[in-house]
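Dear colleagues,

For the upcoming journal club I promised to circulate an example of a predicted protein-ligand complex. I picked one with FE2/S2 (inorganic) cluster because it came up in last month's discussion. The inputs are reproduced below in full, followed by the predicted structure.
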Amino acid sequence: MNELKKICTVNELKENSGKKFFVDDIEIALFKINGEIFAVSNICPHQKTHLIYEGFVENCKVICPVHGWEFDLRTGELAKGRKGLDIYEVKVIDVDVYVKAEQKELKWL
Ligand code: FES
């Protein structure tokens, strides 16, 4: 059953950078942008690299460090509006960050 799970505290996340976590067997990257937390898949759909958390962040987008594909952290979409990263529900209660991560179907670009 998919439910919100506590992942970390807000203070463990740095502004404008990512951090990798596992929720059960799902690999996610959390980003904090202007105090707001976003959860996306850590696996780039281009070549399935597990490095989204190391991507450069700009204008609420993360840029994959391998070949530079850009994903909107709010929607997961590629910059051109194509499907990209899975996104997950985030809830912050006091200082604790909860994420509801569920395995999604493969998205074909
Ligand atoms: S692996 Fe991410 S852009 Fe190529």
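Two points we might discuss: The chain has a mean pLDDT of 92. The chain has one domain: 5-100.

See you all on Thursday,
B. R.
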